[in-house]
Amino acid sequence: MLDASDGHPDIHWPSGFSPDEAHSFCQAQAVVHAPPATAFTLLTEVTRWPEWVPCVTEVRAGPLARTFEVWFHGHRFEIFVGEHVPHHRLGWSGIGAGVQLYQAWLFTAVADGTHVVTENVVRGPAAKSPGALSPLWTRRLDALWPAQLKRLSESASADGGAWAPCEPRWRPETPPAGTRRGRRPPRGRVVGRVRRPERRPARLRARRCRPSCRSSART
């Protein structure tokens, strides 16, 4: 994790969410070879986050509503937009998974395009647990945001404003219950999690009964 003194001086923090007060603080930045408006617009299209933002699987919102819901790494977060200065600043707070967070974005025009800085602070018991939020994992995740934004912004700038989503993330299929990889499932009919054995045809059941029937007839 970074020290609070490593934060960008132009980032605005709401009360209670400064890096000095946080349990976790990370920063990432990139130079995007595209205008600030292009990068800013891509980031504010929140309904398309699942196509490129790491670990985001679902978003319920309009084009940057003041509140929206994000499913991140299997957890639901309620997001509140706290700062929105078109093409320059963006910030939102989130509540979910036992933590509170605030993510700030700063877009600055430079000679090569746009200098993008994002900083993220997290408060809560989960942020203090090394197993729940490792520093290496958090740094890598925060670095992927501007890296993906850079790729898409430069692609959109070259194509006249259109951008192509990332390739869908492949997930291995989970084998059915009661099976192992490389083996066929056992015969039978699955009902919920209970596997019922196959019923024998009536003809076979009758054959199994014949010996007992003959023996009873002799007695």
TrEMBL record:
* Chain segments carrying region Disordered: 156-219
Compositionally skewed regions (Basic residues) per UniProt: 180-211
- Please name one Pfam family that this protein belongs to: Polyketide_cyc2
Entry-linked SUPFAM superfamilies: Bet v1-like
Which InterPro entries does the record match to this protein?
Answer: Polyketide_cyclase/dehydratase, START-like_dom_sf
The name under which this protein is listed is Polyketide cyclase
